Amino acid sequence: MQLALSTLGCPDWDLERILSVGRDAGYDGVDFRGYRDEIDVTRHPLFTDRADETRSRLESAGLSISALSSSITLCETDDRAAHVAEARRLVEVGDTFDVDRIRVFGGGDPEDRSRAELARAGGETMREILSIDGAENFQWVLEMHDAWTASDDCQQLLDELPADNVGVLWDAAHTIRLADETPRETLDALGDRIEYVHLKDAVYEPDHNDATDDGYVYAVPGEGDLPMADVVAALRERGYDGWLVFEHEKRWHPSIADPDVALPAFVEWFRDQR
Hints:
By secondary structure, the protein is of the alpha/beta class. The chain has one domain (2-271): Alpha-Beta Barrel (TIM Barrel), CATH 3.20.20. Helix content is 37%, strand content 19%. It has nine helices and ten strands. Strand 2 (29-32), helix 2 (51-61) and strand 3 (64-73) form a beta-alpha-beta unit. Helix 1 runs parallel beside helix 9 and helix 4 (115-130) packs across helix 5 (151-158). The longest helix has 17 residues, at 80-96. It is globular and about 45 Å long. It comes from Haloterrigena salifodinae. Keywords: Isomerase, Plasmid. Residues 23-271 form the Xylose isomerase-like TIM barrel domain.
């Protein structure tokens, strides 16, 4: 497996620090989910006007972009035009940096519309995105998140999406905490579609002021309650050799461990999983 760090974990760092720490810690790539004050990297000069400079700096550090993580939500039709416009920008940036994957969400509220209706709307949005020139050259990975976290729910949306162009981003912390699935249950259900994996650790502390909605606080890898080792073991058993992304959500939860500690700790923890 190749290791990538998500820029969610270091929202205050400039590119030089991201690349130097990533290189020195032993990462292979960077998943760009925002850069400093801009959550949409397609609107930042480092990825547009100064893209050649950024690409050169990545190459010098021996790092690649594992994916561009968008804010696109396929099933929210009121914002479809904006999502398609974002997709068009992502295709342009992805072409410049030889990116293979772009992350999208499902989104939508099953209390407002049925899952079947939401899934059909998601399929319509995805087909519109794929009509963009060059969009078919990417794998668009659907994160197991929000209304589509459980494997059965995710499969319902996948059934409406073009299989040749859309895979699954397995966020293992979500399926374990929110869908009550073991790693092997998720892999048994969706393993053939999983093309990208997010991993993070957390401890159950519902009274913490920076806890998630389900009461967890993100932790330094190996110091939390989540069965991260079981995720890696299950992936290896299945022969997965793609990207494993450490998604330390410092941007959303500022009190959790600083990136200087957490980012190197993930690589050290992973190397112990032999």
